[in-house]
TrEMBL record:
Organism: Streptomyces tabacisoli
Domain Activator of Hsp90 ATPase homologue 1/2-like C-terminal: 27-158
Entry-linked InterPro entries: ASHA1/2-like_C, START-like_dom_sf
Name this polypeptide is given: SRPBCC family protein
Pfam entry (one): AHSA1
Family listed: Belongs to the AHA1 family.
Length: 168
């Protein structure tokens, strides 16, 4: 696993397989990073609007796994699995995300946390194995909108504008 950012040539070669979402969040970087690293936080904000999360296993370390189910607002359950491939607190998280371990369609995500004044600029760069899988995620599963909603949920949680998040 490389801990370095891809250069411009590598990045342009993967553009048709990527989804990149970013957002400024009105909280310090350490607070935003912690919301990604502790399951007591993750389970309260993770996922698009209307989704809830049930964690089966969680071990936050390189090589550790997060095994969880996302419950859609229509009652559909989505089996999810993440393993962390690189961690640079509080700057960067890299992970492999699929439905299960050894999922051939698993995708890589790199999250960067940059200070932006008193806020944090978070970028979520997701690289799919193929353009077709990226397009399917965007069209069938609305991955771009879902990603934005997920970062909105994170922002509401860490800034306390989400009433449930404000309690914990």
């Amino acid at each position: 696993m490389s801990a370095t950012e891809p250069d411009a040539t590598e990045r342009s070669a993967t553009t048709d397989r990527e989804i990149v979402i970013s957002r400024a969040i009105g909280a310090p970087r350490e607070v935003v990073f912690e919301a990604f690293t502790e399951v007591r936080h993750l389970s309260r904000w993770w996922g698009p609007e209307g989704f809830t999360t049930t964690t089966r296993a969680f071990e936050f370390r390189v090589g550790g796994e997060w095994d969880f189910v996302m419950h859609g607002p229509d009652g559909t359950d989505y089996q999810e699995w993440i393993t962390w491939t690189a961690l640079v607190p509080p700057e960067r998280i890299a992970m492999l995300h699929g439905e299960r371990r050894d999922d051939p369609n698993a995708f890589e995500s790199v999250l960067t946390f940059e200070p932006d004044g008193a806020a944090t600029r978070i970028e979520m760069r997701t690289l799919f194995p193929t353009k077709e899988l990226r397009d399917e995620a965007a069209e069938k599963y609305h991955a771009i909108e879902a990603g934005r909603q997920t970062l909105d949920n994170l922002a509401a949680y860490v800034t306390g504008t989400d009433h449930e998040g404000a309690e914990g």
